Amino acid sequence: MKYNHAYDICFSLESNHEFGEDVTPDMLRTALLNRIKDLDKANEWGEIHANSVPFDTYEIEEDETSNNS
């Protein structure tokens, strides 16, 4: 049996609106990619792994795994 696990990765970005109403999809994408680059540069993926648990898990059929590799 195989399992699909969902994790959160935190990242931040700056905007000009108190509630983030000016945040665009491109701003989100850029901030997330920057966070990934920072994790790579500092080699902190192990820390995230050590301090993270999936917030959702479900069983998947064996033939579904070919789409998730």
Short account of what is shown:
The protein has 69 residues and is α+β, with helices and mostly antiparallel strands.
Could you characterize the architecture of this molecule?
By secondary structure, the chain is α+β, with helices and mostly antiparallel strands. It has one domain (2-11, 22-67). The chain is built from two helices and two strands. The longest helix is centred in the middle third of the chain and has 18 residues, at 25-42. The radius of gyration is 16 Å and the shape is extended. It starts with a strand and ends in a 9-residue tail after the last strand. The model has no long low-confidence stretch (mean pLDDT 90).
Mean pLDDT: 90
- What about the largest sheet? 2 strands, antiparallel
Counting DSSP E segments of at least 2 residues, the number of strands comes to 2
Instruction: Report the end-to-end length measured between terminal Cα atoms.
Output: 15 Å
Helices and strands, with pairings:
Layout: E1 2-6, H1 25-42, H2 45-50, E2 56-60
Antiparallel strand pairs: 1-2
Descriptive terms for the model:
69 residues; 2 strands; two-stranded antiparallel ribbon
